[in-house]
C-alpha cells in the first residue's frame, strides 16, 4: 500500500490527460470550457462520531461548512461516505430515554450534512440486521451494497441499492458499492444475509449501469486496499473511493485512480473531475486533502439540527472514577501483545464474574490512544469498549482453552494486519512461537501458576461476542452460560466499579502474561492507528 501525507495529488491517467496538482490552500481551477462538466466529489470514510476528536480534529459541522463552500463554487457536488459509521462509537453505545442509540445519532448527522451516498461498511452490521434496516429507513440518502444479499429472496439486502445512476449536468454518472467479505464473520450479519464476492457483484453492477446509460462509473468501496486493487483489475471503472484501512491511499491500478482517507473526518477528500459533456470521458482529474481543524468554522444549520443530543454529550462528560496510571488503549498494541489495559480489563471481568480465568479479544478495545492517568469520564469508559456486549461465564476444559489461545494467535504475523482475535488474558500466562504454523504456536500455558491441564475444567469470563463463536472462537459457540453473580452485569458495569473503587487496580506496565518467541528483533510491527 502506498500512503502519503501530502495534501494534494494529481492522478496520471491514460492518453496523457492534463491534470491539476494543487496545495490544500490553492485556488480551484477556473471555470471549465462549455463542452466540459465539472463534478466535485467530497469524500470521507470510517466516521464514528459527529463531534471533533479528542485532538480537536474533524467534526461534521465543519465538514458541512466546507460542503457549502464547494456548492458555491460548483453546482455539481456529490458528498460520499465509504462505509463504517453506525458503530463502534461512544455515542452509539450510550442510551437516551433507556434506549441505546446504536448509530441513530450518526444518521441524524449525515442527514443534517446532506450526504448523497454511503456504502455499507463491516461495522454497519454490528447491531444486527434489524438495527441496520432501521438506520437505512431513517436515512435521507441511498445506501449501496451490491454484494450484500438476502439468501431467501436472492436480492440485495432490503433497504440497500446495488447501484444508482444520476444525471450530472447532462452526464450520466453511475455509482455502486461493495463491502469486504470478511464482514460475514467479523461483524454480526443475520442468518439470511450473505456477503458475496465483491468482484462478481461489481462486474454485475457495472454491466447494469452501462446498460442503463452510465458514461462515468465509480465504485464506493469498503475494502482493504489489496481488495481495491483487485477490484480495479477485475472490472473497468473510472474511479474508486474507498475506506476501511484508516490510511490515506492514493494510487492508480489498471488505469483506475484509488483514493482513501484516515478516520473520523480529520481530513476531507476532494476530487475535481472535468468530464466531456457528450461522452463523460475524463479530461482532467485532481485530488486534494483538506485538513479539518478548528480553523474551519462550524455550520450553524448543522448544529441546530443536532441540538437534541446536547444532554447526551453532557452525560458523557460525567466522572465515574479514576486511573492511577496511563492506560494503553491503542488498538494495534492490544492486537499484538499484552498491554496494561488489556490485563486490567481481563482482571476486572474475571473478578466481577468470580471466574478462574478471563479472555478478551483485543479487537474489542477501541479507544486507539493512550489515556492519561487521572479522572475517567463516562465517555472514556465507553470509548474503551464501545460495543454493546454482555459479560458471561463459560465452563471450559483445558483443551478448549488451549484451542482458544491457538485461535487468538493464528493470524498474527510479522507484517500483516494485527488481528482482532488476539487474546488479552487474566488468571493465566502463555507463550507462543511465531515461527510455527497456525494451530501449533502455543508452546506453554500456565493457569494460576500451574501448567494447563487439558482435562481440567475452568470457569472462564469473556464477552458474549467471543462466547457466540465470533472471531474464530468456535470452540465456545454451543457452550451453555453459567450462573453469574449478576445476570445483567455488563463490561461497563465491571469497569466502572473498578475505576470507582480501585479494585482491581491497573498496573503501570504489562505483567509478562504473554510471551512471544520466533519474532524478529523488536517484536511485531504495530501500525500507529487502527480500528
Automatic annotation (TrEMBL):
Keyword annotations of the record: Hydrolase, Nucleotide-binding, Signal
Family stated for the protein in its record: Belongs to the 5'-nucleotidase family.
One Pfam family from the record: Metallophos
Stretches assigned to the 5'-Nucleotidase C-terminal domain: 320-478
GO molecular function: hydrolase activity; nucleotide binding
Domain Calcineurin-like phosphoesterase: 40-247
Signal peptide: 1-26
GO BP terms in the entry: nucleotide catabolic process
Organism: Corallococcus carmarthensis
Keyword Manganese: no
Protein name per its UniProtKB record: Bifunctional metallophosphatase/5'-nucleotidase
